[in-house]
Design goal:
globular; Rossmann fold
């Protein structure tokens, strides 16, 4: 598949989870993918499976093209330097996936807001919302150089039209990303750059698999995971959006991966088309 041949992409927070899935699928579709994050090396103690190096290795072994940039996106200078490196090496940026997220450093529980540590704010807003904002700040001028490219910015988030997530900090942060994408969609409309908040369902991330004592080869044996999706599913949604010549019509509108699977006709890695995820039935 070469739908994105010649495109240059950046996936922030690309070592694990949704970022890993998106980076791999963009590379499979022909894009040159830069992956940023803080986890390097093939294996590090006390880390969940997956680092920038392991994702890079996986992409190269499958015939794709990629490069890694170690970057702490809470450090503006490192973010600026990452974008400068892309500009110097490629001279363009067509696809930006804002996926970096610091919200997993504390357990995201459903106790009332006043019973939870205020440190959630730093994790989710400084290391999540602001980190994505500043990536946009440095990347957008580069993306605007190539107006004919039909650029795409994706903010990975979570959205359920009718339900509260159960954690005030998480709910605020994820909706802030949606509003950020909406504002950017208006400001970048004249440049032909599409900005989409993208909401996956319940993904089998490394953290989820570890919590249920299983892995990607054996998750089918866990009844609670029967309606989950692999991180490839959100990756395929990103590819479909990037390849859509009419994607500007979707700019600023939250898109759910299950709905995009119906729209574009893609499936998860196991051949299933998983419907839109809802918090409650």
């Amino acid at each position: 598949m070469t739908a994105l041949q010649g495109k240059v992409a950046l996936v922030t927070g690309g070592s694990r989870g949704a970022g890993r899935g998106i980076a791999i699928e963009l590379a499979r579709a022909g894009a040159f993918v830069y992956i940023t994050g803080r986890s390097t090396g093939i294996q590090q103690a006390s880390q969940l499976n997956g680092t920038l190096d392991t994702v890079h290795k996986e992409i190269l072994e499958s015939g794709g093209e990629a490069a890694i940039i170690r970057c702490d996106h809470t450090n503006d200078q490192e973010t600026e330097q990452a974008i400068r490196q892309i500009a110097e090496e490629k001279g363009r940026l067509d696809i930006l996936v804002n996926n970096v997220w610091g919200g997993n450093q504390l357990p995201i529980s459903n106790e009332p807001f006043w019973e939870q540590p205020p440190a959630h704010w730093d994790n989710m807003f400084d290391a999540g919302v602001r980190a994505q904002l500043m990536t946009n700040y440095y990347a957008v001028p580069l993306m605007r150089r190539t107006k004919e490219s039909g650029g795409l910015i994706i903010h990975t988030t979570f959205w359920d039209r009718d339900n509260y997530t159960g954690n005030l900090y998480y709910d605020l942060a994820k909706n802030a990303l949606i509003r950020m994408a909406y504002g950017l969609s208006i400001e970048l409309a004249a440049d032909g750059i599409t900005v989409v908040p993208l909401s996956p369902g319940w993904m089998r991330t490394e953290l989820v698999l570890e919590a249920f004592g299983t892995d990607e080869e054996h998750w089918q044996q866990v009844e609670e995971l029967k309606n989950t999706e692999s991180t490839s599913y959100v990756g395929r949604a990103a590819v479909a959006l990037a390849a859509d010549a009419d994607k500007l019509a979707l700019s600023g509108i939250t898109q759910q991966v299950g709905a995009l699977a119906e729209k574009y006709g893609f499936t998860d890695s196991d051949g299933r088309r998983i419907p839109v995820f809802q918090l409650t039935e």
